[in-house]
UniProtKB/TrEMBL annotation:
Primary location group: membrane
Domain annotation HAMP: ranges: 197-251
Name of protein: histidine kinase
UniProt xrefs under InterPro entries: HAMP_dom, HATPase_C_sf, HATPase_dom, His_kinase_dom, HisK_dim/P_dom, HisK_dim/P_sf, Sig_transdc_His_kin-like_C, TCS_sensor_his_kinase
Membrane-crossing segments per the record: 20-41, 177-196
Entry's EC annotation: 2.7.13.3
Keywords assigned: ATP-binding, Kinase, Membrane, Nucleotide-binding, Phosphoprotein, Transferase, Transmembrane, Transmembrane helix, Two-component regulatory system
Residue span(s) of domain Histidine kinase: 259-473
Organism: Okeanomitos corallinicola TIOX110
Keyword Disulfide bond: no
GO molecular function: ATP binding
PROSITE patterns tied to this protein: HAMP, HIS_KIN
Localization (cell): Membrane
Length: 478
């Protein structure tokens, strides 16, 4: 199966390479076969025409010779003499009377096998125009006609030339020519295949270079292929122009998101401040006003969080997201986050760790933000009566932080995409107020701190988000 798959991958029937090879091989096959066929036909014609001319001459001359001899001798003797003179090793002559009796014949028939001789002599009619015939694997050019002397019809003259040897040689030559043509076609196709493979190399190179370009190096990306044909150079040039346009518009978009987030966050923070202060003095508010103000405050907080996430991502893209990395005790960091999350979510969140100091060089607040995001998701996407467990462990030189829930789980086909920006598994299910940025922030922050994040999830059973970070030893003074 693997071999068959490999074969089809290599011989992609839609590939330009295969189409060019097949096209050129087909054209050369048709061209060479046509040429070989035409040469064969022409040579056959030349060969047979020369023999036809020979026997035509004999058929023309014999009556004249008989006429000449008849002036000195009897018709029968003249006929025999003329036939003797005109026949040779390959040319056979005979004359038949009207009652199909042979009245004269050349004396070279013993060179032919008796069956062929009998078959030839049994012929009653022959065309006046020489033509090719075959008797028992032997090839002959035959012609015939009435033989008259002094206006008196003596009988029918038959002239036959044996061309078997020439014909067999000719057929052997045709066979060799066909075999040679097949070899030439195979060799030409092979050379063409190598040439096409070589010619398409720059295109393959170009496609390989384009696949490795990522968003982060779009601005610096420049395709350059040495010794490429002009057409591929032009294509590379067009690609480069397109890449720079893409980089430009990507940059503008990032700038726009960053500016908008920044400009909106400040006034919204002020609005939220006012809402909070009104809500704190809630004595003179009726229940409808209180509900309206609480909703407004919650939505404002959510929008501020979203803007902060967008700003963080835009800064990370521009390389302006600064980290104050220091070696921290992760037991302390995570137990603090777990306690806080437990209080706000009113859920049971267990913290499991080993009896050992676990430290890593990280930005304290950023890692807190990451763990909060993951716990927040675990809370959002699991039933309220299920447990959430946060585990902290050490594996070789890696610190492993896991956030496990017994929630709805994530379908396999979505697991590789949930870290993309604005990607949400199922909009209908995720009516929890998020906007699909939480996990992309987690990924960006963790990768910027030199770590990795991954997910393992089973539908209906829950999810485990795992963060791994390089471990460090805690300095003595902490
Ligand atoms: P959101 O704001 O939608 O929570 P995230 O980036 O945090 O955005 O998550 C992206 C998507 O991944 C979510 O919409 C949700 O469908 C899925 N997801 C994240 N965490 C979990 C989890 N613990 N259990 C099930 N699904 C999850």
């Amino acid at each position: 199966m693997k071999i068959i798959n490999g074969f089809w991958q290599k011989f992609d029937i839609f590939s330009l390479r295969l189409r060019l090879i097949l096209g050129i091989a087909l054209v050369s096959t048709v061209g060479l076969s046509g040429l070989a066929g035409w040469t064969t036909w022409k040579m056959q014609k030349i060969l047979i025409n020369s023999h036809k001319a020979d026997i035509s001459k004999i058929a023309d001359r014999l009556p004249r010779d008989v006429q000449l001899y008849h002036e000195m001798m009897s018709v029968e003797i003249s006929l025999q003499k003329a036939i003797k003179n005109l026949s040779n090793q390959d040319t056979f002559l005979w004359v038949k009377s009207s009652d199909q009796k042979i009245i004269a014949k050349s004396n070279n028939w013993n060179t032919l096998s008796p069956t062929i001789a009998i078959e030839l002599m049994s012929l009653t009619e022959m065309s006046t125009q020489p033509e090719l015939g075959q008797v028992n694997q032997h090839y002959f050019v035959l012609c015939g006609g009435n033989l008259s002397v002094d206006g008196q019809v003596l009988g029918k003259l038959f002239v036959v030339k044996d061309i078997t040897n020439e014909q067999l040689m000719f057929m052997a030559m045709v066979r060799s020519l066909s075999i040679a043509s097949i070899f030439v076609i195979i060799i030409i196709s092979g050379i063409i295949a190598i040439y096409i493979q070589h010619s398409l190399q720059p295109l393959r190179h170009l496609s390989q270079m384009t696949t490795v370009i990522s968003l982060s190096d779009l601005g610096q990306a420049e395709l350059n292929i040495k010794n490429a044909p002009t057409e591929v150079k032009e294509l590379t040039h067009t690609f480069n122009k397109m890449l720079s346009r893409l980089a430009q518009s990507w940059e503008q978009e990032r700038q726009f998101v960053s500016n908008v987030s920044h400009e909106l966050r400040t006034p919204l923070t002020i609005v939220n401040g006012y809402l909070q202060s009104v809500l704190r003095r809630q004595n003179n508010l009726n229940s409808t006003q209180l509900e309206a103000l609480t909703t407004a405050s919650l939505e404002t907080e959510r929008t501020i969080r979203l803007l902060q996430d967008l700003l963080d991502l835009a800064r990370a893209d521009n390389g302006y997201l600064h980290f104050q990395k220091q070696i921290c005790d992760l037991n302390e960091l995570i137990s603090e986050v777990v306690k806080m999350a437990e209080k706000y979510s009113q859920r049971v969140i267990k913290f499991e760790t080993i009896n050992q100091v676990i430290a890593a060089k990280i930005d304290y607040n950023r890692l807190k933000q990451v763990v909060i995001n993951l716990i927040d998701n675990a809370v959002k996407y699991s039933p309220s009566d299920t447990e959430i467990i946060v585990k902290l462990n050490l594996e070789d030189t890696e610190v492993i932080i896991q956030v496990c829930d017994q929630g709805y789980g994530i379908p396999l086909q979505h697991q590789s995409r949930i870290f993309e920006r604005f990607y949400r598994v199922d909009e209908a299910r995720t009516t929890t107020g998020g906007c699909g940025l939480g996990l992309s922030i987690v990924k960006t922050l963790i990768e910027s701190m030199g770590g990795k994040v991954s997910v393992r999830s089973h539908l209906g059973a829950g999810s485990i988000f795992t963060i791994s970070l390089p471990a460090s030893a805690l300095p003595d003074h902490i």
